[in-house]
Specification:
The protein has four helices and two strands; from the N terminus they run H-H-H-H-E-E. Helices cover about 45% and strands about 10% of the residues. With about 100 residues, the protein is of the alpha+beta class. The protein has a two-stranded antiparallel ribbon.
Length: about 100
C-alpha cells in the first residue's frame, strides 16, 4: 500500500463526515454532533418564527450556549439555518440565525 492510497482513504472518511445527513439516511454525523441532541435542537429551532440568537436557542433546547453555537454552525453548513450579523453601537456584532426556507 502506498501513501496515495492511505491519503485517499482518509480523504474519503473526512468527506463522508462532512456531508449533511438526511433524516432517512444512514450518513454519519461529524464527530462532535450527536443525533439525539441534533433532533432536540432542530425541534427547538422550529419554535422560532423569526430570527434568534444562540442564547435563545440554548434556553429553548435546554442546552449550554457553547453546545448551541456548535450545532448552529453545523446547521449552517447543512443549509438548515442561515446566519446574519447585527451590528450595534458598541461591542461585538450579534449573530442572528433563521430557519432556511425549504
Amino acid at each position: 500500500m502506498d501513501q496515495g492510497v492511505i491519503d485517499n482513504m482518509f480523504k474519503y472518511e473526512s468527506n463522508q463526515a462532512e456531508k449533511a445527513p438526511d433524516k432517512n439516511s444512514k450518513t454519519p454525523l461529524p464527530k462532535s454532533i450527536d443525533n439525539l441532541t441534533l433532533d432536540r435542537i432542530l425541534t427547538a429551532v422550529q419554535t422560532f418564527d423569526d430570527s434568534f440568537n444562540a442564547d435563545q436557542l440554548a434556553k429553548a433546547a435546554g442546552i449550554s450556549h457553547s453546545t448551541a453555537r456548535r450545532y448552529l454552525e453545523y446547521l449552517i453548513t447543512s443549509n438548515k439555518v442561515e446566519v446574519s450579523m447585527h451590528y450595534g453601537q458598541v461591542g461585538r456584532p450579534e449573530r442572528k440565525y433563521k430557519r432556511t426556507k425549504r
